[in-house]
């Protein structure tokens, strides 16, 4: 005799006939969590299978070295002194495989003549035509067009395009020398949000389900160093792409002109009306570095860059970022090191000590500090959201960081460097020793 019967409530409970359907329903309900878990694992495996075969992902697996970057101990006040000198250290290392897109944080890296290995090897460009043209402009001139590089300066949302570098890994079960990913020396992965075009409640449900099944973002894989065979097979042609005053010959990896689907999606995502293409710098590129850089006779090799703006390496003192961050307008988001797109973030000394460095040693290797970094409006873009602030840090920087007589109209923060040898190693925690200080005078493009 159950309690329900005693209370006369039993008649309100539907009697379940022990039919086959009931068994299935009850069993199904009991196993629902297991089914959900099973599907989750299936999708998880699917997404992991989609990782480039034969490779491992380059970069930090633990949390970012910059996770505590706003801590007061990096503000450069109460500097620890060692034998009367500040003890500088490398705090964080970054590469940006695609210019102006999100970077990859490293624990250690190799520096080659052009800067950090894998840094700025790719770049987006848009096709710009001569405009306006007049009626009597010759046809040939009207048809003239040029690929011009784009950055967050004009397209802030580029900050939200994620990049990954996957390198051949002989310990991977799918590794083989014939594997295309291995032959290309690894894979560049590009990820960006999928636009949800589904409207209404039903559309939203469909959107949700497809995002669970296929991920909420596009993911594209590109051979990092395409072999001649891959260049032919994928019809990567060569074209000139204008970046500042250079027009290096570059490989067209994808282009809306060729109707490559993912880059059409990216073009909509970024809201670009012109044709958009992704370029890879070619091996025989000749973006040689002069201006403030030491010459070949001094270095023993000719300094060159990939798609960096001007010099191979960018070093940033976290204390200087703190100092500026404290002076910003109240409504500005917290200023971080990544607003300034450094390769090397250092801590240990006072703000702006780096302004007069000429030569430094990091770990066991020497670097020439060629010049100061003259800032444009790019640091106004929040690197996490891709949203540009209306005035900061440009406004604050302009008030007191116009310190270089070579370009007195613009503010400076960070230093441009050229490696003293063609190959060196660098890692987080390396000691930084100042070998030489002196004057700087910025030479414009
Ligand atoms: C290139 O295409 C040829 C012919 O379709 C094929 O045999 C070869 O495996 C392809 N190579 C690569 C690297 O994709
Ligand atoms: C940058 O700051 C300076 C100084 O406040 C100001 O004159 C200039 O208009 C700013 N530039 C932009 C584009 O906001």
Can you tell me about this structure?
This is MOSC domain-containing protein. Pfam families: MOSC (PF03473), MOSC_N (PF03476). It comes from Lepraria neglecta. The chain crosses the membrane at residues 20-43. GO terms for molecular function: catalytic activity; molybdenum ion binding; pyridoxal phosphate binding. The protein has 445 residues and is α+β, with helices and mostly antiparallel strands. The chain has one domain. The chain has helices at 3-6, 20-49, 139-142, 180-183, 200-214, 228-233, 261-270, 296-299, 318-327, 394-400; strands at 55-57, 81-82, 85-86, 88-95, 104-106, 108-112, 115-116, 122-129, 145-149, 162-168, 187-193, 217-223, 238-242, 249-255, 276-281, 313-317, 344-347, 357-362, 365-374, 412-419, 423-427, 431-437. The strands form five sheets. Strands 4-17-16-20-19-18-22 form a seven-stranded mixed barrel. Strands 8-9-13-14-15 form a five-stranded mixed beta barrel. A four-stranded antiparallel β-sheet has the order 1-10-11-12. Strand 18 (357-362) and strand 19 form a beta hairpin. The chain is globular. One 2-acetamido-2-deoxy-beta-D-glucopyranose binds next to helix 10.
Q: Termini, distance in Å?
A: 94 Å
Average of per-residue pLDDT values? 90
Kindly state the number of beta strands.
22
What's the arrangement of strands in the largest beta sheet? Answer: 4-17-16-20-19-18-22
Bound molecules: 2-acetamido-2-deoxy-beta-D-glucopyranose
Query: What structural category arises from helix and sheet content?
Result: alpha+beta
* Largest sheet properties: 7 strands, mixed, barrel
| Helix share, percent | 10-25%
Radius of gyration: 27 Å
Tally of DSSP helical segments: 10
Shape type: globular
**Domain unit count:** 1
Low-confidence stretches: none
Estimate what percentage of residues fall within beta strands: 25-35%
């Amino acid at each position: 005799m159950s309690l329900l019967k005693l209370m006369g409530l039993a008649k309100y409970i539907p009697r379940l006939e022990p039919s086959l359907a009931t068994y299935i329903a009850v069993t199904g309900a009991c196993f629902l969590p297991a089914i959900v878990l099973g599907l989750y694992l299936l999708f998880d495996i699917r997404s992991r299978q989609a990782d480039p075969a034969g490779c491992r992902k380059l970069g930090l697996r633990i949390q970012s070295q910059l996770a505590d970057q706003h801590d007061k101990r990096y503000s450069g006040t109460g500097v620890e002194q060692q034998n009367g000198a500040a003890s500088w250290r490398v705090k964080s290392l970054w590469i940006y495989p695609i210019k102006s897109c999100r970077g990859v944080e490293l624990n250690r890296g190799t520096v080659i003549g052009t800067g950090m290995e894998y840094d700025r090897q790719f770049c987006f460009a848009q096709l710009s035509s001569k405009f306006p043209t007049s009626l009597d402009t010759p046809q040939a001139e009207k048809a003239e067009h040029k690929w011009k590089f784009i950055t967050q300066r004009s397209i802030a949302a580029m900050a939200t395009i994620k990049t990954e570098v996957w390198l051949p890994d002989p310990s991977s079960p799918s590794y083989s020398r014939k594997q295309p990913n291995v032959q290309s020396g690894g894979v560049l992965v590009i990820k960006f949000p999928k636009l949800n075009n589904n409207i209404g409640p039903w559309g939203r449900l469909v959107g949700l389900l497809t995002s669970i099944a296929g991920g909420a973002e596009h993911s594209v894989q590109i051979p990092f160093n395409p072999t001649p065979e891959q260049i032919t097979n994928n019809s990567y042609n060569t074209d000139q792409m204008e970046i500042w005053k250079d027009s290096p010959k570059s490989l067209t990896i994808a282009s809306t002109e060729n109707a490559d689907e993912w880059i059409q999606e990216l073009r909509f995502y970024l809201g670009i009306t012109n044709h958009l293409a992704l370029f890879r710098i070619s091996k025989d590129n000749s973006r040689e570095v002069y201006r403030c850089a030491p010459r070949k006779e001094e270095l023993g090799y000719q300094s060159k860059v990939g798609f960096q703006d001007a010099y191979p390496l960018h070093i940033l003192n976290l204390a200087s970022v703190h100092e500026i961050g404290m002076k910003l307008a109240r409504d500005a988001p917290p200023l971080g090191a990544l607003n300034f797109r450094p390769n090397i973030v250092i801590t240990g000394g006072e703000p702006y000590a780096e302004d007069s460095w000429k030569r430094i040693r990091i770990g066991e290797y020497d670097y020439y500090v060629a010049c100061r970094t003259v800032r444009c409006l790019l640091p106004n873009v929040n690197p996490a959201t891709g949203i540009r602030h209306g005035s900061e840090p440009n406004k604050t920087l302009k008030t007191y960081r116009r310190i270089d007589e070579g370009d007195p109209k613009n503010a400076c923060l960070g230093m441009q460097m050229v490696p003293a040898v063609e190959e060196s190693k660098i890692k987080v925690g390396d000691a930084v020793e100042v070998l030489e200080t002196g004057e700087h005078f910025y030479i414009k493009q």
